[in-house]
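Quiz preparation item.
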């Protein structure tokens, strides 16, 4: 949606007033003093739109999604803009063993569990408090064995739109029983503006010397592979599409980039990744405390959904950069632990900060 002078507009809040599973849904509007705006619904804690200025000052919506709660609810593609949990990405065969006990999860991706299975955090209604004009606090209590995951887990996610045009996401969780946790969020970005073609000409840089190869079902092989000399090397800024069609077993298996990057040592003040829209000059810098980032080039987008801009969600018209621990960690003894015990506090930070090319 655009106004008469071409600025993008957020979907109407009234289109998000509904009741799902007996709980009221709304659209919350976060604004900062620069005119930047992000809208979030408590249904799945989803980012519904992010309006940022391009190099000419025109507001552009860079986050793909729908403009009504019903379309989010009914869409077969579950993850547009959503909070992902209890466990991001795949868990092989929907099974893992913790403290000697085997747990079986709901599977929803062939034999595997993807993004928490069914229901994942994308499908639940979160309790929401709009703290101030730029801050939204969401909470959800996951019941013991919901989706198969142990523990009553209290999750808090705080979205904040900062004055330097960052959308920060602070995650916290506690449990009453040993469990596993790996939270992320799944905005689908198009920095040329959603509905404006593919993302293959976006330039991208990722500070990672290694990535995690996967098998045919996109489950990690357990190896951390060097990116050097492969199409996975984004240490130097290059376009997403430059090497995406090269003959490479991993690219062919993932139908493009759908891999976790093993981020080089970083603090949360230095970007781990930077992407730029070639048409708008909009730059997105990603900051995190997490050791990994899933880089997904929209390879499973099939143009089956009509999106808020009136066009369809065609192949590679958006990309995701999901900060997280590594997929399938509970079954991969060499990966950093994703175990959360009673008395511990899980914390994770992600920021998507927007600027324009100088
Ligand atoms: C996964 C993809 C999946 C996408 C949408 C990404 O995090 O890596 O394989 O298709 O989410 O669900």
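Solution:
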């Amino acid at each position: 949606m655009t106004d008469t002078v071409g600025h993008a507009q957020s979907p109407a809040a009234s289109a998000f007033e509904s009741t799902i599973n007996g709980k009221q849904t709304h659209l919350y509007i976060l604004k900062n003093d620069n005119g930047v705006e992000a809208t979030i619904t408590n249904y799945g804690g989803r980012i519904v739109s992010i309006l940022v200025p391009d190099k000419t000052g025109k507001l552009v919506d860079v986050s793909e999604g729908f403009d009504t709660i019903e379309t989010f609810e009914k869409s077969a593609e579950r993850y547009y803009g959503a909070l992902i949990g209890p466990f991001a990405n795949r868990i092989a065969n929907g099974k893992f063993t913790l403290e000697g006990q085997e747990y079986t999860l709901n599977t929803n991706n062939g034999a595997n569990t993807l993004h928490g299975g069914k229901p994942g955090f994308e499908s639940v209604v979160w309790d929401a408090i709009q703290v101030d004009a730029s801050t939204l606090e969401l909470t959800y209590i996951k019941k013991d064995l919901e989706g198969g995951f142990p523990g009553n887990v209290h999750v808090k996610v705080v979205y904040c739109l900062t004055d330097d045009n960052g959308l920060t996401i602070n995650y916290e969780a506690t449990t009453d029983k040993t469990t596993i946790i790996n939270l992320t969020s799944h905005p689908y970005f198009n920095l040329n503006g959603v509905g404006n073609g593919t993302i293959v000409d976006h330039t991208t840089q990722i500070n990672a010397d290694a990535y995690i190869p996967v098998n045919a079902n996109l489950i990690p092989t357990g190896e951390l592979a060097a990116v050097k000399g492969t199409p996975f090397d984004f240490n130097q800024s290059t376009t997403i599409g430059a090497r995406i069609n090269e003959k490479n077993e991993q690219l062919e298996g993932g139908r493009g980039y759908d891999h976790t990057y093993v981020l080089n040592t970083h603090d949360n003040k230095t970007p781990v990744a930077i992407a730029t829209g070639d048409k708008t000059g909009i730059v997105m810098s990603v900051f995190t405390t997490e050791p990994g980032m899933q880089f997904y080039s929209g390879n499973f987008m099939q143009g089956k959904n009509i999106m808020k801009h009136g066009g369809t969600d065609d192949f590679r018209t958006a990309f995701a950069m999901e900060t997280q621990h590594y997929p399938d960690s509970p079954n991969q003894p060499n990966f950093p632990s994703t175990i959360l015990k009673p008395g511990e506090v899980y914390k994770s930070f992600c920021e998507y900060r927007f600027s324009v090319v100088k």
